[in-house]
């Protein structure tokens, strides 16, 4: 209640009128008078002079008002701190990432987050689809980028349809093709991207009944490209993973519809800070027309 009384005295001193102060604060004039009298009784001395021209603070009242305003300022700072938390100007967002998101999206999104919400801390953790799902299940991350998930425990927000492309060296018989039929791949040495979780390449082969001639299985996309560069086989990788290829390697579209859907998965209700991250992410994707 003292804070309210301080606010009342501050307003009375500002407008030098009980009536105006009452109007501005939405109180009755008697409530204003009672609050001032209560403060004077509490402190043991007069805070204002009352006369026909209005009211004016006494010297003691001026001195006390200086200290009351310090309290009011501290109260405002406290309310702002609470509002900042509720308004997600503070907080931490823990994100599980696949390598292509780390490379192509986050270097653009993090500076935007830092600019708009400097109080929000971003924590990144990179892994494959399976690891990210486990982190979500265990509560180790707040959200994670996945291709898709069969788990009903997650909410999945689709963000980008990323085409799957066949990568070949200039020594491959498929190098001059403008598009490659998956059936043409069956008899050629194939380097299978290997990772736990939903494997888009394997799922695509199964969808069209293709049995590839797998020579190697590798997790690292750069290692796969290096193998293709040395004509040790061909492979299929998402478009986002083949942005930079050696001179003698190119990515060729597939005749059959082939793609992965990249999205953001969450297990629990998003925190206010996480919601701001999602907003920034979606706005950035829209701006670059991913």
From TrEMBL:
Coiled-coil stretches: none
- Alphabetized UniProt keyword annotations: DNA-binding, Transcription, Transcription regulation
What stretches pass through the bilayer? none
Q: Mind giving the lineage of the organism this protein is from?
A: Bacteria, Bacillati, Bacillota, Bacilli, Bacillales
- Taken from the record, one Pfam family name reads HTH_1
| InterPro entries in alphabetical order | HTH-type_LysR_regulators, LysR_HTH_N, LysR_subst-bd, WH-like_DNA-bd_sf, WH_DNA-bd_sf
SUPFAM superfamilies to which the protein is assigned, alphabetical: Periplasmic binding protein-like II, Winged helix' DNA-binding domain
Ranges of residues in domain HTH lysR-type: 1-58
Q: Does the keyword Amino-acid biosynthesis apply?
A: no
State the similarity comment: Belongs to the LysR transcriptional regulatory family.
- From the Swiss-Prot or TrEMBL record, give the protein name: LysR family transcriptional regulator
Keyword Transcription among record annotations: yes
């Amino acid at each position: 209640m003292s804070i309210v009384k301080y606010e009342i005295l501050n307003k009375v001193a500002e407008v030098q009128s009980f009536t105006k102060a009452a109007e501005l604060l939405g109180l009755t004039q008697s409530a204003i008078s009672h609050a001032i009298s209560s403060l004077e009784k509490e402190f043991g001395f007069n805070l204002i002079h009352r006369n026909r021209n209005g009211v004016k603070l006494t010297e003691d009242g001026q001195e006390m008002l200086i200290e009351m305003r310090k309290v009011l300022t501290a109260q405002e700072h406290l309310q702002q701190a609470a509002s900042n938390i509720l308004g997600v100007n503070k907080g931490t967002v823990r994100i599980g990432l696949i390598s292509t998101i780390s490379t192509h999206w986050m270097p653009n999104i993090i500076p935007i987050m830092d600019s708009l919400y400097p109080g929000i801390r971003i924590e990144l953790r990179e892994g494959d689809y399976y690891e990210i799902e486990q982190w979500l299940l265990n509560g180790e991350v707040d959200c994670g980028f996945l291709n898709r998930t069969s788990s009903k425990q997650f909410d999945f927000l689709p963000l980008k349809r990323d085409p799957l492309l066949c990568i070949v060296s200039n020594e491959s018989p498929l190098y001059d093709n403008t598009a490659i039929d998956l059936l043409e791949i069956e008899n050629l040495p194939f380097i299978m991207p290997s990772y736990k979780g939903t494997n888009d390449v394997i799922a695509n082969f199964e969808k069209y009944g293709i049995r590839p001639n797998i020579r190697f299985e590798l997790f690292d996309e750069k290692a796969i490209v290096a193998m293709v560069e040395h004509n040790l086989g061909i492979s299929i990788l998402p478009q986002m993973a083949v942005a930079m290829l050696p001179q003698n390697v190119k990515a060729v579209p597939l005749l059959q519809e082939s793609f992965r859907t990249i999205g953001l998965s969450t297990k629990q209700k998003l925190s206010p800070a996480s919601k701001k991250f999602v907003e920034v992410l979606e706005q950035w994707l829209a701006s670059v027309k991913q």
